[in-house]
Q: What sequence folds into this?
């Protein structure tokens, strides 16, 4: 994507959402997407990176949708029909959920995680997102998410 296209997309997102992703969160999000690309063919590492990108993106419609798009592509690459179908559903609702603030924060975005199940945030992402309503101790007390992004 060219720089001009990126600027146009960001302008559209700001116009639709009234806010843009903070630079530190955006950088971490893009880093996780890049980590997923560079991890090929290690699909476990690719999923982990995409789950982390998803957690980072949930509050912003376009990045959230992008995270699910990348998950759909990986599900298809893995020939996982159930995951692919789940990602299609998530692509359709991700933007609206972000715009309305109705997202299950911490959710890894995978079909096995459930569509509306909140999950503990990994400590480093919690610090980056600065979510005071999700204290690290309470999230960690719930234990790790099976196959999650921790």
A:
């Amino acid at each position: 994507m060219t720089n001009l296209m990126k600027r146009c997309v960001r302008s559209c997102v700001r116009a639709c959402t009234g806010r843009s992703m903070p630079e530190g969160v955006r950088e971490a999000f893009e880093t996780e997407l890049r980590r997923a690309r560079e991890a090929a063919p290690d699909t476990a590492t690719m999923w982990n990176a995409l789950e982390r990108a998803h957690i980072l993106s949930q509050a912003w419609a376009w990045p959230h949708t992008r995270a699910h798009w990348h998950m759909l592509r990986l599900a298809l690459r893995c020939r996982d029909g159930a995951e692919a179908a789940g990602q299609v559903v998530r692509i359709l609702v991700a933007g609206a959920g972000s715009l309305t603030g109705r997202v299950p924060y911490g959710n890894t975005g995978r079909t096995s995680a459930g569509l509306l199940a909140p999950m503990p945030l990994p400590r480093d992402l919690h610090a980056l997102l600065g979510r005071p309503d999700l204290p690290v101790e309470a999230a960690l007390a719930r234990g790790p998410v099976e196959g999650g992004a921790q």
Q: What stands out?
A: Confidence is low (pLDDT under 50) at residues 139-150. DSSP finds seven helices and no strands in the chain. The two ends are 30 Å apart (CA to CA). The first helix runs from residue 3 to 17.
